[in-house]
Protein: Penicillin-binding protein activator
Organism: Alsobacter sp. KACC 23698
Amino acid sequence: MSWIATPAIRPFGSVRIFARLAAVSLAAALTSACVGSMPGVGSLGAAPTPAPAPEAPAIEAGKLRVGLILPLTGGGNAAVAANSLKNAADMAVAEFSNSNVALLVKDDRGAPDGARDAAQQALAEGAEVIVGPLFAPSVQAAGQVARQAGKPVIAFSTDAGAASRGVYLLSFMPESEVDRIIEFAASKGKRSIAAMIPNTAYGTVVTAAFQEAAARRGVRVPALDRYNPDRASIEAAAKRIAALGDQADALFVPDGGDGMGLVGAALAANGVTGARMQLLGTGLWDDPRVFAAKGLQGGWFAAPDKAGFNNFAARYRARFGSDPTRIATLAYDAVFLVNALNAKYGAQAFSEATLTNPDGIIGTDGLFRFRQDGVSQRGLAVLQVGAGSASVISPAPRSFTPGA
């Protein structure tokens, strides 16, 4: 079913792109180069042997040229993710009514030098905006080139360090998930929240976000325990958390997949249950392995609402005959946004004031906006783990709080 007839954008002061929205599971990280949750890519298997790049078609005069930079011949699963992102970008062009976008597809090979070359090529061919790259070092390299040319970048890394003025990250940022779940827990009377966090790059990012979110809301942190991703370290950390007694009324554990299976079992074995401490997590919990794990039922976590991704995935399968990667919606929303802003605002479409409008935009995965520092914020739902599934207990907001 097609849901796009015309670009549904309201005048600024209240910019919105209305899609039938949302998200599916946030799984394991793609690579430490992204420094955060890179959902749904790691389990795809080996990348296919890259095919020779097709000859670029001639571009119709008057089209808005958009550079699309992806690791099309990157190693591991990077090429799989890149192909899905490219398909989603093509789909956004096809589904936008009277699209005026021409994509200039460039391969960065999953490396900063490749991203720098790709950005230079795209800009030399007339690109007004860059979409991508995927990995943080490549984003930084392409961003340097684009800034010198006065052109914005809408990239997909989850490493906030890759963002800067003019380089915007349209990603599933761990910081947004942490802030949402701590805000929700505090609103439900949880005033003393301990944390048990994996010793990973993702864990380091989430630790800082947790401490900031807790301080902002006056939440006490009686313990912050880091553990290595092995059974012995997890069991030792669970014992230390259990020893807190009634000092904590909630426990934040931002792990996913198999890791949460070990964590849940270790906590249960030490008497740490939802009745004693409310368990809290991030979008990494949106995973069937977490839903099936012992001791995690009743836990709360923050993630995008599911409906939008499910709708997107059905259209993607109909068009391409395969399932999209979880992050494919990022390319779809970026290209759809570029098309819509160009249609409405012309020469001012990609100014900083337009791109960082505080009212935000509703895309496939729900509400988001870009801050002036380039980091995105998302309006997320809070879900509760049940037996083999999760259900929404606090819907994603449809607008940002003024001044927040």
Notes: Residues 32-49+61-171+306-358 form a domain with the Rossmann fold fold (CATH 3.40.50.2300). The chain is about 35% helix and 15% strand. The first strand starts at residue 64 and ends at 70.
